[in-house]
Amino acid sequence: xxxxxFIRENLDLVNESLKKRNSKLKLDGLVQMDDIRRQILLELxxxxxxxxxxxxxxxxxxxxxKDAKHIIxxxxxxxxxxxxxxxxxxxxxDAVNLFLLGxxxxxxxxxxxxxxxxxEIVRSWGELRKFNFKPLSHIELSQxxxxxxxxxxxKISGSNFVLFRGMGARLERALIxxxxxxxxxxxxxxxxxxxxxxxxxxxxxxxxxxxLEEDMYKLKDDDLFLxxxxxxxxxxxxxxxxxxxxxxxxxxxxxxxxxxxEAGSYGKxxxxxxxxxQFDKVEMVKFVKPxxxxxxxxxxxxxxxxxxxxxxxxxxxxxxxxxDVSFAASKCYDIEAYAAGTxxxxxxxxxxxxxxxxxxxxxxxxRRKDTKKMDFVHTLNGSGVAMARTVVAILENxxxxxxxxIIPEVLRPYFNGQERITK
Length: 423
Known about the structure:
The protein has helices at about 5-10, 10-20, 30-65, 70-100, 140-145, 150-155, 165-185, 200-205, 230-235, 295-310, 355-360, 385-395; strands at about 120-125, 190, 195-200, 225, 240-245, 250-260, 280-290, 315-320, 330-340, 345-355, 365, 375, 380-385, 405, 420. By secondary structure, it is α+β, with helices and mostly antiparallel strands. The strands form four sheets. The chain has an eight-stranded mixed β-sheet. A hairpin with a 6-residue loop joins strand 11 (about 365) and strand 12. The longest helix is centred in the first third of the chain and has 36 residues, at about 30-65. It is elongated, with a radius of gyration of 27 Å.
């Protein structure tokens, strides 16, 4: 969330950011609502001052044993007006806050301007494998190897759900353990096992609500949501808390299942594992000082890249343009792994800096050691990485002419040394 004072003092900057995002949101209404809020507050403060002065006069009169009835009578109307204004102020503040919750973060100056077609490929890693046979898609391989059962998943849950089985389930589990081990043992993250259901305050704190509520799975009888990513519960660990400067930076990593309705994407990339309603992911979350957050973003990106490097998967890093960066992010890189069977670059990680946007919504601050000044932390997160599409890339890029799939070397310890998936 952006601060109302910042918006009023930087209207041109915020409007320019909205324009770059191709947003039709107008800030005139917000300024008018805030003017009304300010006017009510001024009137309320004036009445409170009058009431305080009258209370002093009443106290003085009683002490001097003088009649204070006329002052008390006059204050009844003032007290009634204060109550009315307090109610009006709350409504005005609620209206301003609701508007603020709908304003996206300021996009970073380094982002290319435009829609998704303007994304900038920052770098690539690895070579695309050359096949002496026509590579199969992960759907065909899954059927031949009996590692994913899409038909029974549909029977159990509906379309766009997944049932891993046998070596497919083993591959999923191996990837989760490998990533958690890498991030905790080498990259310095603390492992978290978060709840998969969170409350509305948590979803609002990280920016999913109110804007993206239709894409979320909500419980019918409780105001709880299935998490779209572990970013939500992990970021909210420190909601409404004050950290000490010496505690920063904090690096946390978590495995979770992720649940997304994908309400606006029906008919788009819906076959196989490309776009599913439930998938596994290892997430990395950082809480850092504002002056370090963009250096920390590059380190976060490097941590996610190393996952693919160790898996031997060719990938590219894309800097997202202003029209494609998420609502809460100021800057975001996508990592796209190449999948040979479907001949696609698949997004397997997004690494974002939210600056103070989430921290202000979730009220996560830190106290500076020397000045004791309170500042909002900067939050970052990145997929480290998402499993479903990574499985696609492994199956399609490591397939052999005989139909088997070579297991990446770093995963073999999780397979008791087994080197390939066979029929």
